[in-house]
Design goal:
Protein name: tRNA nucleotidyltransferase/poly(A) polymerase
Number of strands: 11
EC number: 2.7.7.21, 2.7.7.25, 3.1.3.-, 3.1.4.-
Number of domains: 3
Low-confidence stretches: 301-308, 317-334
Largest sheet: 7 strands, mixed
Family: Belongs to the tRNA nucleotidyltransferase/poly(A) polymerase family.
Keywords: Hydrolase, Magnesium, Metal-binding, Nucleotide-binding, Nucleotidyltransferase, RNA-binding, Transferase, tRNA processing
Strand content: 5-15%
Strand order of the largest sheet: 3-4-5-2-1-8-9
Helix content: 40-55%
Cofactor: Mg(2+)
Length: 444
C-alpha cells in the first residue's frame, strides 16, 4: 500500500527519520488518502518529544500549540503541520479532555486512544500503512466503528458521539451496531460539552450531502431539546432536499428548526453560539417561508392560491391555506412575478433570494420547477441592473430636498413609495418623472 504524501509532510517525516525518530502521517489525512480524496490537513505523530521536535526544526519554525499534550505545530512551506508525540491518555474527568497524558514509544499505543478505526491509521513511506484496528477494511465496507470499547471512547469524550454521526453523514457510512448503541445510551453526556463545540459538529453534520438519516433522535433530544421527535422526523426529508455545503447552512438550519417559528429559531441558534450572520439569515428564511411570509404568500402560493405546508412543532404539516393575495385559476402556472422577485431582491439581496427559493422547493417539492425559475429570474434581474433598491432610483434624498421635500422620516417614505411605483411600472425610473411623482405623493 503506497500513498502519495503531501510534499511538506513528506519532508518533515524525512527530517524526523533522519534524526532517528519514528514518525508517521496520521488520522484524517491517511483516511482521506485511502478514500482517494484530497487531504487538506496533514497531521503527524512521532516518537520525538515536543522539546526534541522544537530543537530539530527551530523555535522560529515551531508553535508550541499544546506542549502538555505533546503537540507542536511546525510551519513549513507556507503550511502548518500539527505534530504530536505518541501518547496514551489518562481519565477524562470533564468528559472532554484527558486529565493527563503519557508519552509512549510505539505508534500502535497512540492509535489505540483514537476515536474511530478509520481515523486510527498511520502511514510513512518506509513502513507503509499501520492499521492495528482494521480501519482500511471498515473504509472499504463503509462502516464507522469505535476503536476498542465504544462505551469507553464516548465516556472519555462525549463530543465523539456527534463526530460519529458527522463522519457517517459526510461519507454516507453505516454505523457499527455496538458503536451506535453506545452513542445513543451515552447521548446525555453531551450536556457537558460547550455550546460552541456542539454547534461546530452540528454544522458539519448539516452540511453533509444527505444528513437526514444521521439526525439521531436520542442525540438531538439532548443538543436540540426544543425540537420534538415528531418535528424532527418531519424535518428530515426537507433538510435532505436542501442544497448541501457550508455556504447553505442557513437553509439547512431553517429546514430543521423552521417548525419552531422565527423567535424560537433565533433563541436556539443564539444558545448554540451561531454567528449573528447565520442567525439573521436563518431567521429571514424561517419568517419568509411561513404561511403568510413573502414566499409562503406568493413565491409559491400566489399564482396557485396556496401557501406552503410546513411541518409544525408537533410534527404534522399545516394544511395549505388560501393566501390573502387572492386566487387564480387552478391551471395557472406556479411562478413568482417580477414585482415579487424585485421586492425580495430589494429587501434581502440575491443570495438570500436564491436560498429562499431552495428552501421553498424543499418544503414543497412539486413547486421545485417554479422555484428554480424564480431563482433564475432573480439572477437575471440582478445581472441586468433592474431597479430593486432605493439606491438604484434615478433620484436620491438630496434631489428630493432640493425639490422642497423636507428631510426626515417623510423623505424616506417618499423614496420607498417611489421605489414601489417603479417596481410596479407606475412610472419610469427617470429623474423628471420621479420628482413629479414625489410631489404627488407628498400632496396626497
Amino acid at each position: 500500500m503506497k500513498l502519495t504524501l503531501d510534499p511538506g509532510a513528506a519532508a518533515l517525516l524525512d527530517a524526523l527519520h533522519a534524526a532517528g525518530y519514528a514518525a508517521y502521517a496520521v488520522g484524517g489525512c491517511v483516511r482521506d488518502s485511502l478514500l482517494g480524496r484530497t487531504a487538506h490537513d496533514w497531521d503527524l505523530c512521532t516518537s520525538a518529544l515536543p522539546q526534541q521536535v522544537m530543537e530539530l526544526f527551530g523555535t522560529e519554525q515551531c508553535i508550541p500549540t499544546g506542549l502538555q499534550h505533546g503537540t507542536v505545530t511546525i510551519k513549513y512551506g507556507g503550511q502548518l503541520y500539527e505534530t504530536t508525540t505518541f501518547r496514551t491518555e489518562g481519565s477524562y474527568t470533564d468528559g472532554r479532555h484527558p486529565d493527563e497524558v503519557q508519552f509512549v514509544p510505539d505508534v500502535r499505543e497512540d492509535l489505540a486512544r483514537r476515536d474511530f478505526t478509520i481515523n486510527a491509521m498511520a502511514y510513512n513511506a518506509a513502513e507503509g500503512l499501520v492499521d492495528p484496528f482494521g480501519g482500511q477494511k471498515d473504509l472499504q465496507n463503509g462502516l464507522l466503528r469505535a476503536v476498542g470499547e465504544p462505551q469507553q471512547r464516548f465516556t472519555e469524550d462525549a463530543l465523539r458521539i456527534l463526530r460519529l454521526y458527522r463522519f457517517a453523514a459526510r461519507f454516507g457510512f453505516a454505523l457499527d451496531a455496538a458503536t451506535a448503541r453506545a452513542a445513543r445510551q451515552l447521548a446525555p453526556h453531551l450536556d457537558c460539552i460547550s455550546a460552541e463545540r456542539i454547534q461546530e459538529e452540528l454544522a458539519k453534520l448539516l452540511a453533509a450531502p444527505q444528513p437526514g438519516a444521521y439526525l439521531e433522535p436520542a442525540v438531538l433530544a439532548v443538543v436540540l431539546p426544543e425540537l420534538t421527535p415528531a418535528a424532527l422526523e418531519a424535518a428530515k426529508p426537507v433538510v435532505d432536499a436542501c442544497p448541501a455545503g457550508e455556504e447553505n447552512l442557513p437553509v439547512r438550519w431553517a429546514a430543521l428548526l423552521g417548525a419552531l417559528g422565527e423567535s424560537d429559531t433565533r433563541r436556539v441558534l443564539k444558545r448554540l453560539r451561531c454567528s449573528n450572520a447565520c442567525i439573521e439569515e436563518t431567521a429571514v428564511l424561517v419568517r419568509e417561508t411561513a404561511g403568510e411570509g413573502v414566499c409562503g404568500s406568493f413565491l409559491l402560493g400566489h399564482e396557485s392560491g396556496h401557501s406552503i405546508a410546513r411541518p409544525t412543532a408537533c410534527g404534522s404539516r399545516v394544511p395549505p391555506q388560501r393566501t390573502v393575495l387572492g386566487e387564480t385559476p387552478a391551471h395557472a402556472p406556479e411562478r413568482a412575478s417580477d414585482i415579487h422577485i424585485r421586492q425580495l431582491l430589494g429587501r434581502y439581496g440575491l443570495c438570500t433570494v436564491e436560498r429562499l427559493c431552495a428552501l421553498c422547493a424543499a418544503l414543497r417539492p412539486q413547486a421545485a420547477p417554479a422555484c428554480a425559475l424564480a431563482a433564475q429570474r432573480a439572477r437575471q434581474l440582478e445581472a441586468d441592473g433592474v431597479c430593486c433598491r432605493v439606491s438604484q432610483l434615478a433620484v436620491n434624498g438630496r434631489d428630493l430636498m432640493a425639490a422642497g421635500i423636507p428631510a426626515g422620516p417623510a423623505l424616506r417614505r417618499v423614496l420607498e413609495a417611489l421605489l414601489d411605483g417603479v417596481i410596479r411600472a407606475e412610472y419610469p425610473n427617470e429623474k423628471p418623472a420621479l420628482l413629479a411623482a414625489a410631489q404627488k405623493i407628498i400632496a396626497s
